[in-house]
Amino acid sequence: MSSQALTFASCHSRDHAPQQPAAIRYRLNENELHVWVNDQGSKRVCTELFRSGVVDRSRYIADVAYCRYSLSETVLRGYRIWGPACASLMQRHRWFMTLIATPTKWFIEDSAFHMALRDTPHWRGRLVRRAIFVPACWAIGALSNLLARRRASETLQH
Known about the structure:
Elements (H helix, E strand, L loop, with lengths): L5 E6 L10 E8 L2 E5 L7 H8 L5 H14 L2 H20 L1 H21 L8 H35 L1
Antiparallel strand pairs: 1-2, 2-3
Helix pairs in contact: 1-3, 2-4, 3-4, 3-5, 4-5
């Protein structure tokens, strides 16, 4: 693949009508992968696992597309707060990448089911997504939104 390849992929989620596909575009530039989903945010932890070869391209693309399409902006905001720090730890400490890889791969397999790359649900991935990832990210994102509104109102009062 050339170092300046630009590729577009479109996936249809099991949970959503085919008229509104979750679309992702990605570009490989040298050894760096840049991911955009509708020109917004990215998946830091999954990107690190993809870069290290732990996750294959089709699963990675399906995960990014499904998450961007299905997660609320509050959840994504929460993820954007802790995701970069987690990815940084993964880059610096191999033991941390190994620790985080298993539940993250389960999460990705759950996304693969929703994006019709798997025939059966991945129950451990669904548990990670619904019981840990979404509630934690939502709480962090909601707190961040609250603090941002509070700062904005204090600025207006002064």
